[in-house]
Write a structure and sequence with these properties.
The protein has ten helices and ten strands. The protein is an alpha/beta fold. The strands form two sheets. It has a six-stranded mixed beta sheet with strand order 6-7-8-3-9-10, with helices on both faces. Helix 7 links the parallel strand 7 and strand 8. The longest helix has 14 residues. The two termini are 31 Å apart.
Length: 275
């Protein structure tokens, strides 16, 4: 299936954001960049109120898969995708749901913190609501609530008018999380959110992830095996070998994958024997 834009429908419910964590399911997902087949046959289920970690060596398709979950994969001109990705039973590639609405409901936090440098802390938090066309009766209340949920309020409550780019790296990442939370997503995708951070900032982000898991379905890509064990409930091990596209070797409860996986390659990877 070619990743062309779907027919748009007016985001009539954008001012009434959903707050319940969602069920996200993929069935036989394949992805290509031009003729290169990078991902094959990925079938996974992401349950509400759980954190799922995607692990595996670099180049096995984890980030490509993550970006496919909110239709960011199609931003690459040569990108193609096939299979089914459903949010609460609705295929996000075949429904008529507005693309902006899909990305509101399935938010993304990137590897490198990317606050808008010319905007203040408060403006950064509210920027997503403007792009999504969400009416906010109490902007101050939403800014405080979002920063509280991201674990940042106490550190910046007296600096809401300061540029977002003036914060530390860890604070900038939590600001980006707050920006995503302000539009009330049901799913939050996180692509190595701590890879550029120091240990203290990493700990704060991990605490935030655990706190948010009761409110938002979370999918995180990480190369840090200790982090996967600390923050995730479920885990999926991706692998690409011998010129074959990336695929899921196995998935299940994190405790099982790290202690008694079904496939010996999983045990080799989590114990650091390769990758």
């Amino acid at each position: 299936m070619s990743l062309t834009a779907l027919p748009s429908s007016p985001p009539s419910d954008a001012s009434r954001p959903q707050t319940a964590p969602a069920h996200l399911r993929t069935d036989d997902v394949h992805a290509w960049f031009g003729a290169k087949h990078v991902l094959a046959g990925v079938t996974l289920s992401f349950e509400p109120k759980e954190v799922t970690a995607l692990i595996g060596p670099s180049g096995c398709g984890k980030s490509t898969f993550l970006r496919s979950l909110n239709r960011m994969h199609e931003l690459v001109p040569s990108a193609l995708i096939a299979g089914t990705i459903e949010l609460n039973g609705v295929d996000i590639y075949r429904s008529r749901t507005d693309l902006t609405e899909i990305r509101r409901r399935i938010g993304m936090v990137f590897q490198k913190p990317n606050p808008f440098p010319a905007m203040t802390v408060a403006e950064n938090v509210l920027s997503g609501t403007k792009l999504s066309g969400i009416k906010v009766p109490d902007k101050n209340g939403l800014v405080e609530q979002s920063l509280q949920r991201a674990g940042l309020w106490n550190e910046v409550k007296d600096r809401l008018g300061a540029p977002g780019g003036a914060l530390s790296g860890g604070q900038q990442q939590r600001l980006c999380i707050a920006r995503s939370l302000a539009v009330q997503p049901e799913v939050l995708l996180m692509d190595e959110p701590c890879s550029a951070l120091d240990p203290t900032s990493t700990r704060r982000i991990e605490e935030t992830i655990k706190e948010l898991s009761s409110e938002v379905t979370i999918v995180i890509v990480t190369h840090n095996m200790q982090q996967a064990q600390r923050v995730s409930d479920q885990c999926a091990f991706f692998l690409a070998t011998d010129g074959e596209p990336g695929h899921v070797v196995e998935s299940g409860p994190t405790s099982k994958l790290f202690a008694e996986p079904d496939d010996p390659r999983t045990l080799d990877y989590v114990q650091g024997r390769f990758g």
